[in-house]
């Protein structure tokens, strides 16, 4: 009961703090919603441009004032496995809309980069900024003001947060997010990790590594580990922006197609012209944001969402802080064991009971707000179900979530959690603020006190590892990796090397103003250090040999140096000119100048 009361207190605190920004936001979307789409008031030349490429039936419908028009924002591309299935979705959506007497148009496409391809590469320096580019790209498409509702086709890391920011910026429009689902299970995650570490040690070659990676990432759909992409899907469902039970159904199946058609029908049924008007800006309120944070903790979700959720909430006028996220972590039991905080993948999570079971258990114990508005038209209790294919092979039917988990080693109950608190924690101290994903780190490794080894580039650390220079216990400080320095790339490729050293018996940890993503793994990592080095943060004063204490239990991040001496030290300088050009980085200089700190969403808005 204490947890329930505390969650209510935190929600009320967020609501009170947000009132100066939330209330004007609600007034704006109410006024826009009352006015309706401008399609009916466009000059004839404008409207003719809007449907010039449509077929005769759609043209006829769009000339009237009562026909619904559904906007499609798509992040389709062939290269990104999770988004390749979206190639066929627009026609499926258009045809379903026509069957309802409505129309649907692709309002715009947005970029969608694969962090798996750019991991450890130069292109990763554009990744975080792509979120805000995606939001702006979607806004360009929706700015034609031709639509009564929108569906958003996106799955992966920065894409869904960017689309969510756009959906809330156009919060007067009903919005439904349409997932494509995870790829089927490939090489077990433990085996993939083993091969990566063997390669890092030089014990297997590139051929063996590529074979293992290809068996892991082998077909259409989301990567099956529980990183940012699958955390996105969990969030959209637990925040009421998916149709129930749709997050983790594999692509290319009849049920997946049936869910897409159903999402289309639902989006068209909740417009301002009907009786169930459900604008996105009312679905995402303070309670929905808190539900999202709790879902993130209960599943051991991605550290990236300590930034993305802050930015998404801000788009709806809601002020979420790292302190809120950390306090909610202390109140939320860990109910899922999915790689990297377990050996199972997201398909095993789905088979064990999936989102329906997870939401059911959290609601049963009062850990979620049920009294929310959802795109489905119910409270969150309407999501305690499993979606199945109807007997006709085309419709969706729903049955209650299982009473018991089908695999308690993957999905459990609040009475018998895998850990008493959630997967993410805020760190604080004389180095600034940071976050750590503790759910993937063994309890005995969550506290490290060791001397610093300072690097200004992740490749420098890799070279030191290969040269055998990283001996004894140490905390690697990798700085000038924040948003203003170089776009805050993920440093995930450091995990195998540091994992090798940890397995050899060394106490190791990472402190960085960069990111590690949802796959941060078994190494204690204080990430998103704020203020970053490029903004004069204390991380810029650390020297080789300084003793650092990283305490993932108490939430302390301290450099154990006399305060007077530490404060008097000059800040380190780094030559960042190499980050300014190549692979499009020159086009993002304005982003590096304008971006805000990580604890405020690392946003340019």
Describe this protein's structure.
With 605 residues, this protein is of the alpha/beta class. It has 2 domains: 2-184 and 219-400, no CATH class; 424-600, Glucose Oxidase, domain 1 (3-Layer(bba) Sandwich). The chain is 39% helix and 13% strand. The chain is built from 22 helices and 14 strands. The protein has helices at residues 2-35, 44-51, 56-63, 89-99, 115-118, 127-142, 159-169, 189-200, 206-216, 228-238, 254-269, 280-283, 286-299, 305-315, 322-331, 346-352, 354-364, 458-466, 483-486, 494-503, 563-568, 589-594, and strands at residues 69-74, 103-109, 149-153, 175-178, 385-389, 396-400, 424-429, 432-437, 447-455, 474-478, 508-512, 525-530, 547-551, 556-559. An 8-stranded mixed sheet has the order 7-8-12-11-10-9-13-14. Strand 3, helix 7 (159-169) and strand 4 (175-178) form a beta-alpha-beta unit. The protein is globular, with a radius of gyration of 24 Å. The protein starts with a helix and ends in an 11-residue tail after the last helix. The relative contact order is 0.11. The mean pLDDT is 94.
